[in-house]
Every structure is written in structure tokens, then in C-alpha cells.
């Protein structure tokens, strides 16, 4: 029933623009990964060991964006399954925001612990 729904041409234009922008975000994230990998090999130190976790998180974010962009583009390029393709895009965005949420929580906690640890060392 809902699987045969088709978005209008104007709505598909919005999806096409969003797919292009999301694809750009994925490409820019992969560029950041490449630059970090290059920096990792040239400036490796014990403090850079967390870079591996950093790169893994960034890579997963890029994959979520590429998958969402692909699904959004399918909304525009195919007929008969717009709702399914749109739902897949939303699932990928949900994965990204779930990951972002926990990355932010970890960032806040690690910053707080680092600050408290530095106060304890100096005091």
C-alpha cells in the first residue's frame, strides 16, 4: 500500500539536493580521515593512540552519510519505493545521530575528567 507512493517532482528536488549535500559531508569526512592517517604516520606519539578510535568513529559517520545519500538519491532515481528508500535514509541518519550523541557524551566526560585530573596534579 504505502510502498507504491511517489513523491512529487518538487519533493524529489529537495531529496536530490539533500543527497548531494550529505554525499559532500561523507567525502569531507573521508578527507579528514586521510589527513589524520597521514598525520598519524608523521607525528606518532603515545598521545596519538586514541587516534585509532577517533578514525573508527569518523569512518562510521562517513559510512552512515554515504548510505543515507544513496537512499535519498534512490528516492529521486527510482519509482514505486520512495517510502522505503526514504525510511532507509532516515535509519542511516538515526545511526549517525546515535553515534554523535554518545561521542558527545564521551567527549564531555573525558574533558571533565581531564580537567579534574589536571587540577589534582597541579594542586
UniProtKB/TrEMBL annotation:
Q: Which residues cross the membrane?
A: 21-44, 50-68, 98-117
> Where does the source fall among the domains of life?
Bacteria
Could you list this entry's UniProt keywords, alphabetically sorted. Answer: Membrane, Transmembrane, Transmembrane helix
Q: What is this protein called?
A: Uncharacterized protein
Amino acid at each position: 500500500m504505502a510502498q507504491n507512493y511517489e513523491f512529487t517532482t518538487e519533493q524529489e528536488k529537495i531529496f536530490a539536493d539533500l543527497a548531494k549535500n550529505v554525499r559532500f559531508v561523507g567525502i569531507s569526512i573521508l578527507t579528514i580521515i586521510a589527513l589524520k592517517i597521514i598525520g598519524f604516520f608523521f607525528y606518532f606519539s603515545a598521545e596519538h593512540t586514541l587516534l585509532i578510535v577517533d578514525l573508527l568513529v569518523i569512518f562510521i559517520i562517513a559510512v552512515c552519510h554515504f548510505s543515507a545519500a544513496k537512499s535519498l538519491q534512490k528516492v529521486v532515481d527510482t519509482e514505486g519505493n520512495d517510502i522505503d528508500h526514504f525510511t532507509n535514509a532516515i535509519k542511516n541518519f538515526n545511526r549517525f545521530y546515535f553515534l554523535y550523541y554518545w561521542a558527545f557524551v564521551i567527549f564531555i566526560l573525558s574533558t571533565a575528567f581531564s580537567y579534574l585530573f589536571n587540577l589534582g596534579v597541579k594542586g
